[in-house]
Amino acid sequence: MTDRERPEPTTIQPVGRSVSRRTVIKGLAATGGLAATGGILAACSSGATPAPSTGGGETAAPSAGGESPAASAGGSITFGSNYSDDVPKNAMQAVVDAFTAKTGIEVAVNTVDHGSFQDQISSYLQGTPDDTFTWFAGYRMRFFAGQGLATDISDVWSEIGSNYSDAFKAASTGDDGKQYFIPFYNYPWVVIYRKSLFEEKGYSIPATWDDFKALGDRMKADGLVPLAFGDSDGWPAMGTFDILNMRLNGYDFHIGLMAGNEKWTDPKVASVFEKWRELLPYLQEGALGRTWQDAAQAMIGKQAGMYFLGTFAGEQASEADRPDLDFFPFPTLGTEFDSELGIDAPIDGFMVSKAPKNLEGAKEFMRFLATGEAQNIFLESSPNNVAAANDADTSAYTPFQQKMAEIIGGSGAIAQFLDRDTRPDFAGPNGMQGFLQNFINDPEQDLTAYLQTIQDFWDSLV
Amino acid sequence: MSSTPAPLPAAPGSTTRPRQRYSLLTRQDKLVLAVLVGIPTLIHVGLVWIPTIASVILSFSSWNGIGGLENIEWVGLENYQRLPSYPPFIPAVTHNLMWLGVFLLIATPLGIFLAVLLDKEIRGTRFYQSALYLPVVLSLAIVGFIWELQYAPEKGFINNVLGTTEQGNLIDWLGNRDLNMWAVLVAASWRHVGYIMLLYLAGLKSVDHTLREAASIDGASERQTFFRVVFPVLRPINIVILVITIIESLRAFDIVYVINRGLNGLELLSVLVTNNIIGEAQRIGFGSSIAVVLLLISVGPILVYLNRAMRDQPG
Amino acid sequence: MTAIARQRAVPTAVTRERRSRLPRALLHAFLISVSILWLFPLLWAIYQSFRPFTETAAAPVALPQTLTLDNYTNAFERMEGFKYFFNTIVIVVPAMAVVLLLACGIAFAVSRFSWRFNLALLMLFTAGNLLPPQVIITPLFRIYLALPLPEVLNDKGLWYDSYFGIAMIHIAFQLGFCTFVLSNYMKTLPKELVEAALVDGASVLRTFWQVILPLCRPPLAALATLQFTWMYNDFFWALVLMPTGAKRPVTSALNNLQGQFFSDTNLLAAGSVLIALPTLIVYFALQKQFVRGLTLGSTKG
Predict the structure, then answer these.
(1) pLDDT digit string, tens, across residues A332-387
(2) β-strands A414-415, A343-344: how paired?
(3) Which of A40, A228, B273, C212 could disulfide-pair with C134, CB 3.0 to 4.6 Å?
(4) Interface touch B52/C11, C-beta < 8 Å
(5) Which are the contacts of A239, defined by CB distance < 8 A and separation ≥ 6?
(6) Alpha-carbon distances of B8 from A214, A225, B56, B129, C105, rounded to whole Å
(7) C-alpha span between C69 and C174 (Å, rounded)
(8) Cβ-contact C223, C186 below 8 angstroms
(9) A contacts of C236 (beta carbons < 8 Å)
(10) Predicted model pTM
C-alpha cells in the first residue's frame, strides 16, 4: 500500500508474450553460448562495474566463478509481478527478456495490478504462487518469511552478499537470521518541485521549518497551492506522518512505535499531529477525494508549488517535463534528531515462494536480479529509483537519480514506510489508513481521544 | 450482485389448481427426479448454506488465514465484544442505516410515485419508462464511475456548474465525509428508483380495473383512489418492495468499493467483511463476526419475504 | 400481464372526462424533466468519452471543439481488446445455461413431490438467494482454496482463481430465483400434458426434455436476459475469488483499470461506456424479455 501506483490497472502480461518465438530462439542461442563459456551470471565480485548490458543474448555474464548452477536450471520459471503501470511494466519486461536471453530460462510473467497484488498476497502465497514474486523489504517481508511462505535464499546471498551494503542485507533478513529477499532499488520520500517555477518566481530551497512555511506564504501570495496533496487511497498521508515523527522524535522512537514498543498515546505522538496542523494552511484542499496521481499532476501543471511524495511521482510527468523536476529533503524541524536526516526510502525487490516448481531457475533469476546489470536495465526505462546493488552503473544516472542516491546515502536513519514497518492489519484500510484520513478530515479533533482509539486498535490486534 | 431478484408473489385473484399425485413413475423415473432435485440442492446448499453456517462458527475463532484449520484458535465471544470499539464498525452500521433510510423514505416512494404516474394512459410512456429504467441495467460498479464524472473535484460536472473548483471554495463531494455518503446515495437512488418503478408498475397493471372505476364513479379523487383502494389491494407487492429495499440496502457494496474501497466516510458492513479477508493480513474470525451481524439483520426481512411469497404458493 | 394490458387498452370514458388539459401538460413536463435528469449522468459520460483530454482539462463543462474516438481506441487498447469480455463470456454463458437447466429440472421435479417438501425446498432456495453475498464470502473463500479442480479447468488446480469457480457461485446463488420463477410458471401449465405423456409410456426424462422444456421457452427467454445482465454486472465474486487480473471478467477488471484512467476522466468515461455497452444493447434489444423476467412471478395464472 505504500506503494507507488497503488490504484492502478491490471494489465496482465499474457504468458505467451514473453515466450515469443524470437525470444525462444534467442534463449536457445544464449544457452548454447553459456554452455560454451561455462560461465554463469551469479553475483559479481564486489566493486566490479560491468559494462552496461549491450543487449546481446550471448553476452557472457560476469561470473563469481565457481560452479554453474544454471547449467542444470534451464526450463522455465513463473514470476508474479506487481509492476502493472506502463513504465515499470515495460522496464520489468526488459529485465526479464535480458534474463531469458542470458540463461535460456523462460519467464512467464503474471502481472497483477499493484493494489490487488498486495491485497491478495496472503492467499496468493498460500495457494499456488508463482515461483518468484515481487515484494517489499521490512516487516512485510519478515512476516511472510516467518509464516514459512518464502524460500530461504541465504545460499544465493552468500554469493551476492558482497554486492550489497550491510543495510540492504539487514533489510533482506528474516527474524530467523536467514535471507529471503533480493533488494532491487529504492527511492526516497522528498519534496518535489519544478525548477522552472522556482526560477521564474525566485524561490529558494527551504532548509528549516520556518523557511518552509515562509516559502508557503509566498506561494500563496503568488496564487499557488504550496503543497499538493492527495490521500484518497489512504496511504500517501503515511509519508507525512513518518517524516514528521522521525524529525521530531527520532528514528528509534518511530520504529519502536511501529513495532508496538512505544504507545500511540505517548505525548510525543500528539506532537506529530500538532506539527501537522501547522502544515494544513499550505496543503491542497480536498485531499481525501484526490488520488496521488492527480495531486502530482497539480504540481507538474504548476498549480501547486511542491509535492511531498516518493520520487515515483516523476512517473506522472511527460518526457519533456521530467528534466524540469527536482527535489529537496523535507526541512529540519530544529530538534536533536535533525542530524539523523531520517527519511523513508522503501526498498522494492523479489522473493522466492515456498515451493517453487523450478527452484534452481528461481534462484538463478534472483542472482540475476541482484546484479547491477539487471537493475540498470530497469532504471533505464524507469529513472525514478536508484539501484540497490553496489556494482550498478551510476554514471548513467540522471541528475535526479544522482541526487536521490546522495540523499539516501547521506541519511543516517532509513525507514521503509509506515505500512512496511508495521503489522499489515494495523496499517490497512480499517487501521492507519482510516485513522489518518480521519485526522485529515477533522484535524482539530481532540488528539487524546483520537490517539487512544489508535492504541485500542493496536491492542485489539496483538 | 447487481439486483435483488424480485419474484413477485401471485397477483391478487389468481386461481390455484388442486394438485394430484401420480403413481405412473418407474423406479428409473424416480431416480431421475432425485437427480434433478439433488444436484441443484447440493450446489446451493454446498456453496451458500454451508458457508453461511461456517461464517457463524468461524465468528467464534481467531485465525489469520495462514496454515490449515488446526491453526484456528477458539476465542468465544471475543470478536463480538470487540465490535463496538472497532473504529469503522459504528460508522458502517450508521451508513447502512442511512442507506436504508434514504431508500425507504425517498427512493422507494419516488419509484412508486413514478409508477403511479406512468400507469395512466399517456403518450410516450415507453420513453419515460425506458429512461427511468436505464440505470438498472448498468452494474453498480459502472454507476460508481459514471457518478465520479459528476462529482470529481476539479473536472466534475457539478463543481464546474456551481463554480466550486478553486482552492478555498472547492466542494469535495467524494472526499468530505460529511458529504460523500449522501453523494453516493444519490447515485444509488438513481438506480433504485427505476427498479422500484418497474416492479410497482407491473403490480399496478395487475389491479382489477373495475375497482378503480367504481371508486372513481363514487366521486373519489385520484389520490383517494390510490391510497384507499389501490394501495391496500397491492399489499403483497408492497411487502415485496419493502423487503427488496431492505435487502438492497444491506447488500450495498460495489459503488463505495469502486469509489474509495469503502474508506473515509463510506464504510459499510459489507466492505468491512471484505476488507478483513482480502488484504495482506486476513482476520477470518473477526471478519466472520461482522458477517454474522449482517446475517442477523438480513434474517428478519428474509422471513417476512418467505412468509409472503410462500403463502401465495398454490398448494 | 399481457392479458391485463390488452384489456386496459381501451380507457374508460369516465377517467378520460375527469382529466383536464392543464394537469396533463404538467404531468408531461414533470415526467420529461425527470427523464432528462435520469438520462443526464449517462449522456454526460458518453459526451465526455468523445472529448479529447486537453479540452476537458481546459474547460470541463463546455461545448465541444473537437470530438474524437481516440478515447475509445485508447481504452480498448489498454483493456487489451476483447480479453476481459472474453473472460466474461467464458463465465457467464455456461453459468447461464447450467442455472436455467438445473432450475428447470428442479422446478419440474418438485412438482412431483409432496407439497410440504416442495415448499421447504423453495424456501431454502429463495432465502439463500436473498442473503448478502458478504455473509458467505469468508468461508467460501477458504472453501475455494481447498477444493481441487482438474488442471484442464484451472492451471492452479483449485476452484479459487478459476472461471469454473466463479461460474459455480453464480449458479448456486441464482438457482433460487430461477427455480422460484420456473416452478410458478410450471404450475400454470395444464397438468394433462404431463399426464398424457406419462400415460403414453414416456419416461420422466423424456417428458422433461420433450414436453416441459419447450413449453418453458417464454420464461426461459426472460430469465436468460435477466441472468445475463446480472452475471455480467457482477463485481464482487471475481473481486474476491479471482486474484489473477488477466482472468477477471470485464466488470471486475474495470476496478483495476481505474487507477490508470483516474487522471484522465475521458478515458474513464470511454471505458465505462464500452463496458456498459453489452448490457445496454441487451436491454434495448430485449427490453420486453427483461421486464417480463423481473415481473414473471406476478404473471402466472
Answers:
(1) 999 999 888 889 999 999 999 998 999 999 999 999 999 999 999 999 887 888 99
(2) parallel
(3) B273
(4) no
(5) A189, A308, A309, A310, A344, A417, A418
(6) 67, 56, 30, 19, 21
(7) 38
(8) no
(9) none
(10) 0.81
